[in-house]
């Protein structure tokens, strides 16, 4: 083992969502970090009113439970014609990705205004109960009339990005990184995280 590996900091991804974890592994790949999944038995109650509050709750809880730095993501889809719903309740909208998509398409059946946006709040907390970094990202788009594309997760097949005309599910992981709420939030986090890691490694 090299000395570099010995000093590599652990960052736990405070999420139970395999799609998010896959994206974070790609987003974090260039950093000198040992990226780990959160313990399987850990369930955190998302009692916040905002994405930022929920991201904090998840990051602080998982950092405390694991004794490591933790990165949390709270995200969701806000639909203009539904007054911002499902928003922070996006995961609780129905019991599975397929049912969540079905319900949203049903709710918008007679509605012409398809405007929507995805939001992501990211938070890194330390094992000493400190919030180290917080950022938010957003992506504007439209809810399609039917699912398109096979890639990604969650609501990806029915969210068409304004800037590209394609759904997230039609994008490669690199394209999704470029346009998505999570990719945009991470672009803000990345330089600050690099600086933190750099400071930490100084004797
Ligand atoms: O890029 C995305 N593409 C498609 N769908 C997405 C995306 N980003 C968030 N979403 C959906 C998934 C979930 O239904 C809800 C987030 O809820 P949220 O509580 O943050 O995540 P979650 O419960 O799935 O996992 P966890 O809290 O353990 O990180 O919005
Ligand atoms: Mg959740």
From TrEMBL:
It is an enzyme of class 3 (hydrolase). Mg(2+) binds at residues 45, 74. One of its GO terms (biological process) is purine nucleoside triphosphate catabolic process. The keyword Magnesium applies. GO terms for cellular component: cytosol. Coiled coil: none annotated. InterPro entries: dITP/XTP_pyrophosphatase, ITPase-like_fam, RdgB/HAM1. It catalyses: ITP + H2O = IMP + diphosphate + H(+); dITP + H2O = dIMP + diphosphate + H(+); XTP + H2O = XMP + diphosphate + H(+). Binds 1 Mg(2+) ion per subunit. Gene3D superfamilies: 3.90.950.10. The active site is at 74 (proton acceptor). Its cofactor is Mg(2+). Its EC number is 3.6.1.66. Substrate binds at residues 15-20, 75, 153-156, 176, 181-182. It comes from the Bacteria. One of its GO terms (molecular function) is ITP diphosphatase activity. Keywords: Hydrolase, Magnesium, Metal-binding, Nucleotide metabolism, Nucleotide-binding. Pfam families: Ham1p_like. CDD domains: HAM1. NCBIfam families: RdgB/HAM1 family non-canonical purine NTP pyrophosphatase (TIGR00042). Belongs to the HAM1 NTPase family. Homodimer. Pyrophosphatase that catalyzes the hydrolysis of nucleoside triphosphates to their monophosphate derivatives, with a high preference for the non-canonical purine nucleotides XTP (xanthosine triphosphate), dITP (deoxyinosine triphosphate) and ITP. Seems to function as a house-cleaning enzyme that removes non-canonical purine nucleotides from the nucleotide pool, thus preventing their incorporation into DNA/RNA and avoiding chromosomal lesions. This is dITP/XTP pyrophosphatase.
């Amino acid at each position: 083992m090299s000395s570099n590996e010995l000093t590599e900091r652990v960052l736990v991804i405070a999420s139970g969502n395999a799609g998010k974890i896959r994206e974070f592994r790609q987003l974090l790949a260039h950093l000198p970090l040992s990226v780990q999944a959160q313990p399987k038995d850990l369930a955190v109650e998302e009692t916040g009113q905002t994405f930022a509050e929920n991201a904090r709750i998840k990051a602080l809880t998982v950092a405390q439970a694991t004794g490591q730095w933790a990165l949390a993501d709270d995200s969701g889809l806000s639909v203009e014609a539904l007054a911002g719903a499902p928003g922070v309740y996006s995961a609780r909208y129905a019991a599975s990705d397929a049912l969540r998509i079905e319900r949203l398409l049903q709710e918008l059946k007679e509605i012409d205004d398809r405007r929507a946006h995805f939001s992501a709040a990211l938070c890194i907390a330390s094992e000493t109960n400190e919030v180290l970094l917080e950022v938010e990202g957003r992506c504007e788009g439209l809810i399609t009339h039917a699912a398109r594309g096979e890639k990604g997760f969650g609501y990806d097949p029915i969210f068409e990005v304004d800037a590209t005309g394609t759904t997230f599910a039609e994008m490669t992981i690199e394209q999704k990184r470029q346009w998505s709420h999570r990719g945009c939030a991470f672009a803000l986090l990345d330089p600050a995280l690099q600086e933190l890691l750099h400071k930490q490694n100084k004797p």
